Amino acid sequence: MQDLFTVSGKRAIVTGAAGGIGSVFTRALLEAGASVAMLDMDNQMSGLRQVFGGYENAFSVSCNLLEKGDRERAFEEAAAKLGGGLDILVNSAGVQRRGHIEEFTDEMWEFVLEINLNAVFSMTRMAGKYMIPARYGKIINIASMNSYFGGTNVPAYASSKGAIVQLTKAIANEWSRYGINANAIAPGFIETPMTSDMKENKEIYEYKRGRIPYGRWGTPDDLTGTLLFLCSAASDYLCGVTIPVDGGYLCK
Ligand SMILES: NC(=O)c1ccc[n+]([C@@H]2O[C@H](COP(=O)([O-])OP(=O)(O)OC[C@H]3O[C@@H](n4cnc5c(N)ncnc54)[C@H](O)[C@@H]3O)[C@@H](O)[C@H]2O)c1
Fold it and tell me: What CATH number does residue 234 fall under?
């Protein structure tokens, strides 16, 4: 029973590890005894080293997920730093672009889809190289309220996050037989750099808050219990689910 929720000794890759949610996930895994390869953009490396320098099992790996070749290089570097294996993949990196559809450029569309969907697929495929032979793995994707709602002015983001729910099921359908769990978390409205523009707009901020039965926006810490659950043996019989952690936003 005691071991049900443990991740001690596990080897994890977290993408977007310098982000609002990714950094809290990274700290939660490290505090729980896992080793973590922290992937993020090159300009985030010194910040990551400053914040996580005190953990001997934290390894920063620069990675631009927009570039296919760089994903592969970074993934292999991360796996090597973790000692040549991988138990947990947390695909937390994500981007947002806002704009009316009639003004939304191909560049904006491709940028969001490449990072939020295509990179998640490639990281997952590479994780399989380690997880399938080991007959063990935990893959955690990050969905969104926009996995359920089309949203307004976020066509690429909503499309990518809708697809993440389906991709998570597809991975689970194929890889559960290898002992690999694939599941997703759908955060509600969480205060991070990604949502800072919404926070600055009092009207939007209050409108969202008013829909949340808990009466407040979430913080990344509100998601960590679900993350650790999905990374541990406690979730071993879950298969391709997306868990909303949204203060009840979807209830209304
Ligand atoms: N904040 C929210 O309310 C919310 C709600 C639902 C889902 N999410 C999802 O949660 C995840 C984390 O979001 P967040 O709020 O922490 O955002 P954030 O902007 O704070 O962090 C995103 C991280 O991804 C990294 N990143 C961006 N482009 C990259 C690239 N090309 N290569 C490597 N790394 C890159 C950034 O450097 C950053 O560290 C995202 O997938 C986001 O879509 C967030």
Answer: 3.40.50.720
Which residues sit with their C-beta closer than 6 Å to ligand 1? 16, 18-22, 40-41, 44, 63-66, 92-95, 115, 142, 144, 187, 189-190, 192-195
Confidence (pTM): 0.98
How far apart CA 7 and CA 36 sit, in angstroms, is 11
Q: What is the mean pLDDT of the chain?
A: 98
What's the mean pLDDT in 146-170? 98
- Catalytic annotation, residues: 157
Domain count within the chain: 1
In the chain, the amino acid numbered 100 is H
> Helix, strand, or coil here: 247?
coil
Give the pLDDT confidence of 27-51 residue by residue, as tens digits: 999 999 999 999 999 999 999 999 9
> Residue 81 belongs to what domain range?
11-244
What is the DSSP pairing of strand 35-40 with strand 242-245? unpaired
Q: In terms of residues, how long is the chain?
A: 252
Inside any domain, residue 250: no
Taking the centre of ligand 1 as the mean of its atom positions, its distance from the CA of residue 232, in whole angstroms, is 23
